[in-house]
Design a protein that fits this description.
Nucleotide-diphossugar_trans, 22% strand, alpha+beta, 103 residues
């Protein structure tokens, strides 16, 4: 699928079927470029408290990139960008079988 890319950390153990992650590309709005998982590590949440303007952190270990939307930005056909927070965790003991968008 050339309209998207999945970026995974090299030390990640994938425990779920990635086809559900690919399907999330269909749910992106035209101005949404990336899907990232929210950070789940308690140590990182404590660190975030030091930065009061930031209430949500994202884990870059699993990323979904909508390449068609990125191409449109590069060609000047899209002037807004956004991140889609995804409620999935891959390679974690609490891995979810169904991947879905959160708001």
């Amino acid at each position: 699928d050339r309209r998207g890319a999945i970026v995974l950390d090299a030390d990640l153990l994938v425990l779920a079927d990635l086809s559900a992650l690919w399907a999330q590309l269909d749910r992106f709005k035209p101005n949404q470029l990336y899907g990232l998982a929210r950070e789940t590590q308690p140590a990182d949440r404590e660190l975030i408290k030091l930065f009061r303007n930031y209430t949500i952190a994202y884990n870059g270990g699993v990323q979904l990139h909508h390449l068609d939307h990125l191409r449109q930005v590069r060609q000047g056909r899209c002037n807004q960008t956004g991140i889609v927070p995804l409620s999935w965790i891959l390679g974690h003991e609490r891995a979810k079988a169904a991947l879905r968008l959160t708001r």
